[in-house]
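#structure-requests
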Amino acid sequence: MPDVTKATTVDAKVDAIAPPKAEAAAEAPKKQGKPRGLWGDAWYDLRHRPMFWVSATLLALLIVIAAFPGWFTSADPRAGDLTNHYLTKPELGHFFSAEWFGYDAQGRSIYARVVYGTRASILVGVGVTLVITFFGGLMGLLSGYFGGWLDSIISRITDIFFGIPFLLGSMVVLNAFTERKVFVVILALAFLGWTSICRVTRSSVITAKQADYVTAARALGAGTSRMLFRHVLPNALAPTIVVATISLGGFISAEATLSYLGLGLADPTISWGIDIASGSEEIRNNVHVLLFPAGMLSLTVFAFIMLGDAVRDALDPKLR
């Protein structure tokens, strides 16, 4: 017969050495993840939004096209051949070829011009947004934090600029220049477009500087620069980023509108607005000359607006 007593003793020793699995799991310390802040929560929320990934993919593709247009077409966007004019219909089956979108009235490849026109529109949109975010954000930061006479002066200047119609004022400013290149259009649009960023930043700073952590930092003797750039600005930046992202698409539309009216970019610069203006003359008979640059412009603006909406929803806790 097997030694039952010996087997029972061995089992008891094993149980004494190794506690049950349930008890071991209960005794094991629970691993707690690092708490996320506002930006961590925003990134977590953005990663789970299909709208963000669609818009980000479109914008990444547009940036690559703007940076390396030669990767997408070998045709010269300025070379005209009157044997290929707008009566030559698009060859939609010839992907990425010069005749894919057809030709304009001067025999230039519409597809090549759409590709090369991406650079000017992206540069203007991003350039204006960077300038107004820096300047308007700085004015709003100073106005909201210091208040008093400085706030009154900046607020009155902002009111004056708000009273100037944006497109009309941009037309007047650009009409003062004989040569309108990309940086001239950027400065003209930024000259009148900084006010919204200033107002939004000012409101956010006024709210942030009343928070308890700012009061505590001030009581501990933090200097003005540390208070502004370490405590107030990071916690007031979210609304500014949302407005700037959404406004970017609007500035691209504004550039195209001014170029369409002949007061924005001009030849030899390639712009969707210029091509839309030339295509509108043949809209009844050859709509494709207008359709492709206008469609590319609409797609770009739509992508930036979608990105702005996704960022807004992610940064606003009330919308989660």
